[in-house]
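Chapter review: from sequence to fold.
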Amino acid sequence: MSDVDDYVLGREYSEGLRLETQHLLFNIHNGYTIDPQIPITPETKIADMGTGTGIWLLDVAHQVPSTVQLDGFDISDRQFPHEASRPDNMKFRPLDAFSQVPEELIGKYDIVHLRLWCCIVKDCNTAALIQHATRLLKPGGYLQWDEADLGQMHIRGPEAEAVSAFDRIFRSILHFDYAWIQDLPNRSKEAGLEVLKFKTEPFSKTCIPIVTRTCIMAYFTGIETLYKFSNASLPPRNEAEAAVTALVEALKHGAVYHWTPVSLLARKKIVS
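The C-alpha cell string follows.
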C-alpha cells in the first residue's frame, strides 16, 4: 500500500468481482440503482466517487438517455473498465476524493454517488469527503450514498461464539471506527445539504448469503494485505486465518454474520 493509495482491500482482479457482486446486493436491497426520487433529464450529469470498476455507472448507463454524462472518479485507475466496454457518454479519471475539487468540476453535477467508504475513512474524519461531494454538485443536485455499517454486525444462530470470536479478532486488525456512518445525516446537514432520506435496516433473508460471502472475500483480502505490510500490533497471522476458517464452518451450520446496510439521499440547497 502506498502513501497515496492505501485502500486496505486492494485492487486485484478478484476484488473487482466482489465490488460488482456487492453492487447486485445493493440493487436487490434498495430496489433501484438511482433513487427514484431523483429526476433524470437528457441533460443530467452524474458523477460516481470511488467508482472502482465503474459497475454502478455501467448499470446506470442502461437506465438513462445516452445524452446523460457519466463520469467516474477514483484515486486509482487500476480497475477502470476499458474504453471498448463502456459507452461514449462515460468517462473515467483519477481523482483523490479527500483533495480539492478541480475548478472545472465545481458545481457541474446533478447527481453524485458514493458507496462503501467504510474501509477508507479514517478516525471518523468525513469532512473533506463530504465537502468534495458537495462541491461537485450543482445547487439543487442530489447526493446518493450507499454504505456498509460494520459497527452494527448481526451475529446469531448456531456456533455464534465462533462468529463473535472472529469479529473480535478482525476488529483488532482493522482499527476502523464506524461511528460516523450513523451520523451521516448530521454531517450532511453541516455541509449545507438537505437530508431527504436516511435508511438503516438489516438485509432480508434472501440477501444474507450474498452479503456474507462478499464479507468473507473482503476479509481474506484484507488479512493478506495487512500482514504483507505487517506491524507489531497485529495478532499472529495463524490466529487470524484460523478465525476465518472457524467462521466459514459456523456459517455452514446456520450461523449468521453480516453488516447493516445504510442509504442516504440528500440535496444541495439552492441559495436564493
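Two observations follow directly from the output. The chain is about 35% helix and 25% strand. Residues 1-5 have pLDDT under 50 and may be disordered.
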